Amino acid sequence: MSIWNALADVDYRHAYVDAGGIRTRALQAGPEDGEHVVFLHGTSGHLEAFVRNVPEHARHYRCHAIDMLGHGYTGKPDVPQEIPAYVDHLIAYLDAVGAERAHLVGESLGGWVSAWAASEHPERVASLQLLCMGGTKINPEVMERLKKTTTAASLEDDVELTRSRLRLLWAEWDEEFGDELTEVRYAIYHRPDFQKNLPNLLALQEVEIRERNLLRPDRMPRITAPTLVVWGNKNPFGDVPEAQAIADAIPGARLEIFNECGHWPQHEQAGRYNPISLAFLAEAR
Hints:
InterPro entries: AB_hydrolase_1, AB_hydrolase_fold, AB_hydrolase_sf
Largest sheet: 8 strands, mixed
Number of strands: 8
CATH superfamily: Alpha/Beta hydrolase fold, catalytic domain
Structural class: alpha/beta
Protein name: Alpha/beta fold hydrolase
Helix content: 25-40%
CATH class: Alpha Beta
Radius of gyration: 17 Å
Domain AB hydrolase-1: 36-268
Number of domains: 1
Number of helices: 11
Shape: globular
Strand content: 15-25%
GO cellular component, one term: membrane
Strand order of the largest sheet: 1-2-4-3-5-6-7-8
GO molecular function, one term: hydrolase activity
């Protein structure tokens, strides 16, 4: 099945939105008068990470899956991409589409950005879903692995390196969408603007920069939005105790652990994730 065939029953729009002067790629679907749900991907990712989630969520909500600042086909200012800049871009996108408040669903880096946004702009965040979120600790081994695999996949003309980079995210290879997602990501990685921006995109994998962007213990309690933490027990970038610590640090947060699951729970186990997410959103409304 094609990732776009998965959207065949959905009235969607592939759009480019001016978000604070940044040309921003977005997949928009669902009732225009529905509550807004914004899906944010991880480091070096793109909006296709949520192709298994948008159709079911768009039955009830106005959904937006976007390529974040410096990622995918979105604009790439020539400065290191740090968390406040990602948040500013997110808020500019919400302003551009007329979303006074939104439910944020963030995977990995997207969760980091979402949590920071919820702590800085609580009036804009209706609820928070943090899927294998990063940003609470420094792990040089993980950071170096992410830098090396992304750089190699981007700068070398070998599609198998891109496949290996994706394979790192999943507990099991995705037979349905894996090959197509590899092609999508390979095309993005080998765009001249992506390659030029690579040091800026990977800035958070440098210890000094990451240090000043961490979600510290004094920030987490400032999150007042209803929060759901979702984690895979085979997440290669963080073990289950990290997920528990995140949930414990956010008042009232709920934790869901997915067994036999890696770094993309919303994709790897969409059949389990979607009902949990929709029930959580219904409670948070």
